[in-house]
Amino acid sequence: MPGKSTLADKSFDVLMYAFLCLVFVVTFYPFWNILVVSLNDATDAVRGGLYLWPREFTLESYRSILRNSELIGSVKVTVLRTVVGTPLSVLAIALMAYALSKRELIAWRFFTLFFIFTMYFGGGLIPTYMIIKSLQLIDSFWVFVFPGLIGVFLMILVRTYIEQLPPELEESAKIDGANDLQIFASVVLPLCVPVLATIALFIGIGHWNSWYDSYIYTYKPELKTLQAVLVKILNQYQTGAMVSEAEALAKSSKRIPVSGESIRMAVTMVSTVPIMLVYPFIQRFFVKGIMMGAIKS
């Protein structure tokens, strides 16, 4: 009878829930273990056996990171580049996608192929550095924003999304006397919120996690990003922790509060948690934005 679940349906539901629980444990537990190790005394952690809870709770690894004089400034730089770079990139991508969604655009095929070409071929590190230097972006905050302002893949995603919008909406706006910019601002942008929120997540994560551009293009300490400073701290502790396991065990009586391992775990938490807190706010747009922007009707 319709609406009445059978034994096979119940068995399938049980298996599905068990599988989802297994996936959750497999994906969540490594992150939880990193947190546990980062909160445990480093000397005690040498013994191993840390699974669910710290045996000897301590925040010394986090204090060691936060005592670094460069860290606070790097957080400001990273937050600023994320707050400034993300909306600028989203706006530039949306404008480019809207223009390329118009097949009647002069040289439409040329511009489309031109952007697609850049997805597969690049000039390399040295030519890129020379171009950025010629633009006087070295040791400038804007080197974090302008070189990667438009992601071609994300632009194609938004363009496909715009092409699926009913053309009657733009036609009615034109009848009311709206020009292209007015149509883009008042009609297209509000309808593109799901896909724009999705690419904003990608771009924001990219800005937050980026460290290589800070490493290559900036020399002033006040322009170093959080990830670049954390990499520097991590390298310092890794270099200082290059001792054998026997030596570490021999020094266990000294109760060393931090180690290269605990610092690595604390660095992972410091760099990951803030951007993870943003995801729940735009998660509801994520699947809708990806699917509607990736499927061409």
From TrEMBL:
Residues 75-282 form the ABC transmembrane type-1 domain. Keywords: Cell membrane, Membrane, Transmembrane, Transmembrane helix, Transport. InterPro entries: MetI-like (IPR000515), MetI-like_sf (IPR035906). It is found in: Cell membrane. The chain crosses the membrane at residues 12-32, 79-100, 107-129, 141-162, 183-205, 263-282. Belongs to the binding-protein-dependent transport system permease family. This is Carbohydrate ABC transporter permease. It comes from Paenibacillus artemisiicola.
